[in-house]
Amino acid sequence: MPGLRAISTDRVQLIRKMKSPRTIQQLQSFLGLINYCRSWIPDCAVHDRHLRSLIDHKAPPSTLLNWTEEAELNFTALKQAITKAPALGLPDYNKDFHLHVRETEGVAIGVLLQQHGSTYRPLVYLSKKLDNIVTGMPACLSAVAAAALVVQMAERMVLSHPLILYKSHQVGAILHNMQTQHMTAQRRSGYEATLLATKNLTIQPTASINPALLGVLGMADMVDNVTEHDCIIELTSSCSSRADLLDSPLDGGEHLYVDGSCSKPADGVYLCGYAVVSETGEIIESFALDFNSAQAAELVALIRACELMEGKRVTIYTDSKYAWGVVHHFAKTWEARDFKTIVLHCRCTQNSKADFRLVSHMCSGKSAQTY
Q1: Which ranges does the record mark as transmembrane (predicted)?
Q2: Among 1, 62, 74, 144, which residue's Cβ finds the most Cβ atoms within 10 Å?
Q3: Structural contact between residues 173 and 231, judged by C-beta atoms closer than 8 angstroms
């Protein structure tokens, strides 16, 4: 058909007649045929991901598969997608390209469009599995990663011509204002280079893909569950251990100072302990620990202070940057413990922290005595 790309009838019939694979080799053969046609399948990577999880790459090709009902559903979905595959348009480099991107089930999904008359015609369907690091990120950051990945894939056809990216997340705001430990500087700079520094790319926010457009694109079953939200607020709440955890002192409430230490004398026996001290210098708790790590002792001291003050307003001071970082950046899973805490990091060498240095010295001395 002039101006269109379609899968040949012979290839469609070949895939339709294939029976459910029983061995690794048969499944790999099927996936090879499917991936040759992935440009016509909107959610190819979603089904491909589930089927590839059945393959043991260390096993011989003749190894029997553990074929499940879920595998059969994904196998059937791919065969049906081939039979319903639409004809794709050829790119017209005198028109703007339009790219809709979404993330679902750990897969980045996109469709590249161009205006054709009064509607839009798909040029290619793009889908690829996101890496494990991205799938563990909050939804808004996963959306940024998915957008960057699909834009890179679309560039093979766009060839630096004007491209408009439609996204239901505030991609630009996230990259400009993001302060999170979920992403390395190298990864973030890569996303910035793709989404912010690409001259031919324009990002246009949108609530979701129009349902009518989904039907035209053959994606009517792919419901978008993204609700209206502020990405910055969502990231702030998802990256914090709990909503009421701050890094500045509370007005009123208790004030505790914690410290832990570990040393290894000449006899080779580790001496480890911790102490929790009140603002008045009262030693609330101190014990020896069966650890060989000062970081572990600092965490235990912090945990015990939280447990002792459960249900109370409390500001906890620690001189351990490690423990402070665990609470404020890495301890989302601690939310289930229902601690109500404030943890501050203070440098003992600063003159403005004389009171803290005094109490920290008492903590350190007491933790040393617990050996």
Answers
A1: none
A2: 144
A3: yes
